[in-house]
Amino acid sequence: MIEVSQLNAGELAALLHFHADAGVEFLLEDEGIDRFAEFAASAAIRVPAQTAAPQERAQRPSERQSAAAAKPAPRPVSATAVAIPGEEAIEMARRAAEAATNLAELKQAIDSFEGCNLRASARNSVFPSEAGALPILVFGATPSAEDDREGIPFSSAHGELLAKMFGAIGIDVAQTTLAHTVPWRPPGGRPPTPAEAEICRPFAMRLIALAKPRFVVMLGNFTTRFFTGSTEAIHALRGQWFEIGTPPTQAVAMLHPQDLMTAPLSKRLAWADLLAFEQRMKQANA
């Protein structure tokens, strides 16, 4: 077995990435625990108990009844939360979203919403409470582990790369409005189910209506399909413009920062899309 102390920096980074991809988000113990030793100790305790079993069976009924009465009653098992049917949950989300008159109220509605099971497993609702100074709304798919922990969209390495991407064309991403189509991180970072996505849709559409952006940037496969209904992959949709929301807002599909991390050769495609986006903004402002 290789000790951690024997790994170099690159191997340690690879190991951390492996655990992150597997859904491990936190180390709950400061020191390692030898589970094999724990099991051996537990087995050693069980052996004397088994040898004492015949003597216990030889007890008179009255003695067994007294022993049973002395044992504490088991704790009641908490009832499992009843799932709200999909159509009813979508309607609940629609009513909650439409009642919000600004982004702060919309975030509050999301924080208190109980119609989506993702809210129960997430630490925070990751959603903007106010719009940025620039009329650009950037949507990712779902919060990362860091986003979930901080309650802030794009607070991980994805956000750092996103800032560099937009900074290359002179846009301060901190002045845009950053959000996710689904405001709660699914367990282990799995993709949202179609039902979960539909429950979250009213909140995303209401965000567009309240933020009133001039442009929406849809990052990655899930986000672009979420808003356009297309089944094509992002490499087929990137650079294309759509109209989404009511009233219609111009939206462009782009590669997600994760796409660039996974395939660095895609950076040239992202750069071409950013230049086209810059040109589109200049034409709109002319």
From TrEMBL:
Organism: Rhizobium aquaticum
Domain of life: Bacteria
Any one GO molecular-function label of the UniProt entry: DNA-directed DNA polymerase activity
Span list, region Disordered: 50-78
InterPro entries: UDG_Type-4/5, Uracil-DNA_glycosylase-like, Uracil-DNA_glycosylase-like_sf
Keywords: 4Fe-4S, DNA damage, DNA repair, Hydrolase, Iron, Iron-sulfur, Metal-binding, Nucleotidyltransferase, Transferase
EC category name: transferase
The protein's Enzyme Commission number: 2.7.7.7
Nucleotidyltransferase is among the record's keywords: yes
Stated name of the protein: DNA polymerase
